[in-house]
């Protein structure tokens, strides 16, 4: 049972740290210590609270917490999460706004499957929801998917996207963030050639590795240094008996989290030291900036071994998308077949994960589009997360993306789209 012992060992270590935090918090918070004028007990209690919460978050899927949205009538309208298409490895999730006329902008957000849940795009969804109808690819944690459901690699991911786009129809605006960028491009090309009537209206690609060699980063350097055999040996484990996916080969979320934190270890260490100090001084809050960020950042999910390994081998090492040699279900995808889907590229000037140039490489592959159907934007001073969340996204990038969708709102026609637009205004 290759890797099962190490998988359970990691979970045991996480569980032990959570228990130690809870024990320290309970012990140091005992009322009798109020009679002892020593700051050690306040620091111990603060350390325990922060430690318990941090390690507990690692196995909890965050909630979307998008409960209402203000419409043009000035009233709050209830937002309901509705699963429109249920699949073993991920669902098509709609944020349905009750009591509001349907918006003409229909947006499919392709969330990354790169260690975090789709809720990483919570602020992106919240910022678009007042002006758009929103669907999200809500990927499942591989540890919870029985082995009997079969494999899931990047070809399966691409086919999931084609199913979701086909379901939503040709008046859909697809926005892909980070990891799914090259696969959303491939899914669009796949539909353009085999089912042209199902193509989306626009495609916005945000900070993804279309051509990792266009601008090397620490991520791409790692992919070059390690062999596939080494990667499989070091990263792949087998889900333990605690979960429904027992026996499935995965790249564990806890292992991924260790990699995330090691990339910025000094910054994360300082953030937790500051949080413990604030708690010890009675200045901590349940929903302060630290907790809002780390409740999401520390919540990680396993991804299937075949998805992770095929991503590294085919996207980063062999550069199949960059060379326009990507195969899906036995069919060679030709990105040049995209002829009527307007494409916009968004990159961050200081993105250290998908550096500027990696995503922009998509425009050179889109030989079937005119210059008027292509657009690009590099956001000054923005890092990786800043191009889909935070101030840079809200104030600069979001308005540009909305304008791009509106500019190409009539591309490809569509009676339904025109009807919805007319009824809206």
UniProtKB/TrEMBL annotation:
UniProt-recorded name of the protein: Polyhydroxyalkanoate depolymerase
Cross-referenced InterPro entries: AB_hydrolase_fold, PHA/PHB_synthase, PHB_depo_C, PHB_depoly_PhaZ
SUPFAM superfamilies per UniProt: alpha/beta-Hydrolases (SSF53474)
Gene from which this protein is expressed: phaZ
Domain PHB de-polymerase C-terminal: 207-408
Native species: Roseinatronobacter domitianus
PANTHER family documented for this protein: BLR0908 PROTEIN (PTHR36837:SF4), POLY(3-HYDROXYALKANOATE) POLYMERASE SUBUNIT PHAC (PTHR36837)
Pfam family, one: PHB_depo_C
Signal peptide: none
